[in-house]
Amino acid sequence: MKSSSLSGRKSSGTLARVMARAVVWDNHGCMPLRADDDTFLPQLRRYRDAGVDVVSLNVGFDAVPWENTLRMLAHFRRWVQQHDAEYVLVQSVADVRRAKRERKLAVTFDVEGGAALTGQLSMVSLYYDLGVRWMLIAYNRNNALGGGCQDEDTGLTAFGWQVLDEMARVGMVTCCTHTGLRTTMDVMAYSRNPVIFSHSNPTGVWQHKRNIPDEAIKACAKTGGVVGINGIGIFLGKNDARSETVVRHVDYVVQLVGAAHAGLGLDYVFDQQEVDDYVAKNPDIFPPEEGYAAGLKMMPPEQLPEVAEGLIKLGYSEHDVRGILGDNFLRVAKQVWK
């Protein structure tokens, strides 16, 4: 009994130390995309209470009008700035470090799919100036940049190549989550910066069209990028959002390409009813036969320390756990952001 108790205290002490030293980074969270509603925004505190230092909030995806993406940026930015005692609106890596030092939550933004550019290359720099730090190529379906993971992917388009160059120029990270394999491999082969999967899980653990095969994970690692494991039940298993299942997906990526290329992007949706309604109304984007239905289980931020503890119990070093919790995404930010 003494040995078990001592082991428990040791694990607990290691977890506390790792969480305190890491820049804990959830690379994808979803607040309601309603620019006239800040009802859920106070729940951002849940990230901070769970030990998270940085969160990237989604501001739009391909299926919503691009104008709403700009409205959401205006709405979120204003709210964060009005609550600067608890939050930091991130423009630079220095802001991330300051937020950690001051025990505040650093907030960045992301756009899921290039449709928000409306075919205009200069929109990339506008979004970057407004705090968008990564953007998907496509969201499930094909768009003007390339192919989606649930469509007939024909590869990166001529405009898509131009967008990659512009993203590199301004300092925006390229993401291939929700993107088709052919387009993904085009991006990986071409990009001169690290490319990420902000919130994608390996097909080697669970087969789903939204998940990514080993060849894509290896290509991502070759760029110096990071695969952020999400906490959505149907991408983890049979609607299974347990912490140990997330750990299994993380461990798979680590065994394949190393701990420097694994991270977390939970994809937690704060308004469950909104996502249930949207999925039901848009079967073309979320096919029921792929498991999309009401009642999708999601891993909330509160489970993140359990994931860290699970990795520690597997024998991961403190350095590697800190990397997976967020230092790996911090490395990419330092390399790409300007």
Structure commentary:
With 338 residues, this protein is an alpha/beta fold. The chain has a single domain, classed as TIM Barrel. It is 44% helix and 13% strand. The protein contains 13 helices and 10 strands. The N and C termini lie far apart (54 Å).
State the main characteristics.
8-stranded parallel sheet; two-stranded parallel ribbon; 338 residues; TIM Barrel; 44% helix
Gyration radius from CA atoms, angstroms: 19 Å
Integer count of domains: 1
For the record, give the distance between the C-alpha atoms at the N and C termini, rounded to a whole number.
54 Å
Q: Please identify, by name, the CATH architecture.
A: Alpha-Beta Barrel
Count of helical stretches? 13
Rounded mean pLDDT is 96
Low-confidence stretches: 1-7
CATH topology type:
TIM Barrel
Concise summary:
By secondary structure, the chain is α/β, with parallel strands linked by helices. It is 44% helix and 13% strand. The protein has helices at 2-21, 45-49, 66-82, 93-101, 123-129, 158-170, 181-190, 214-222, 233-236, 243-257, 272-281, 304-313, 318-336, and strands at residues 25-30, 54-61, 87-89, 105-112, 132-136, 173-175, 195-196, 227-229, 262-264, 268-269.
